[in-house]
DNA sequence: AATGCTCGCAACCGCGATTCC
DNA sequence: TGGAATCGCGGTTGCGAGCAT
């Protein structure tokens, strides 16, 4: 079955939008809502296809869009979320509430990706290009890796669901009662049944994480937006297991100590919590309603505990990335010695602060390293 | 001043998912 | 229930601005 074109191409304008077209589109949507995008152009008097109108609205004209330079906080959030979610721009965008997925995608491709490459980090996997250290970790601890991957994927799915709620709630609050602009209630109503259905549909959590629903409310989510910029920085500290500690210690006692001192004290997500959670996940797949509740609650609690990360470490990570242009010899790049096992470790700038940053970043890398190759998440 | 190159961004394209009939 | 219509997402392209030569 061939796919029909989204619109008749003949006679329709393409390319950049003029101010007049913008005005027409804005005026129409403000008055009537967009309704069917396909039908909108004719009604609004535009020589555009509905898809083009939708994109223009969602990427540019929507009133709740923040434009301009990305803040450090936003950059940091993008990098962290990308490490976890990969190129899932819409999911990432929901945690930078006023940015569009398109804008984030562009910013990643034009700025952040290059910065990581310059640091010697693969922007796709978030691994250092010189990767011997991490592969040895993976070989020895595949079970932990699998658990971490599950955690990441559960959390990723939850983020997506929350994201929808955020977007819809904000639209509602912004546009008041103009319900015609909003998706139909049936598409956004989230309840236990939806949640269970979504999870059960994912017969393999590794291979299928599509659109699980969350029971979390927007106000709950809003609690995470604790900084200015409405950005919820995500800290993923799943390495806090006793087994993982052993791994890192094997690789470098000093490194882990730095991480431990800098991070563990601020992280209520204990190894016990993680262990219980992963054991539950292993034992009950596919989950029953009961175990699903247990898992969801545990995952949500754990993730919540980590959304509020150590701001000092976060800032350090950002600095590390942002300063890479002028300060590459202190970066994580293998050339800089930061990631190597050569034993020069301190390389003359080994402050605890820097060590914390490095270990935090290693933390994300470890999480990504642990994902299975067939996972759609990474 | 003219030309070429690079970069950043807006917009397009194609596909999968979802909804509608 | 199945096909068509529509939506949403991620990848890619094209163009304009800025910079270098």
UniProtKB/TrEMBL annotation:
One of its GO terms (molecular function) is DNA binding. Residues 174-229, 324-351 are annotated as: Disordered. It comes from the Eukaryota. SMART domains: SANT (SM00717). Its main location: nucleus. Residues 178-190 have a biased composition (Low complexity). Pfam families: Myb_DNA-binding (PF00249). GO terms for biological process: cell morphogenesis; regulation of cutin biosynthetic process. This is MIXTA-like transcription factor. It comes from Lotus japonicus.
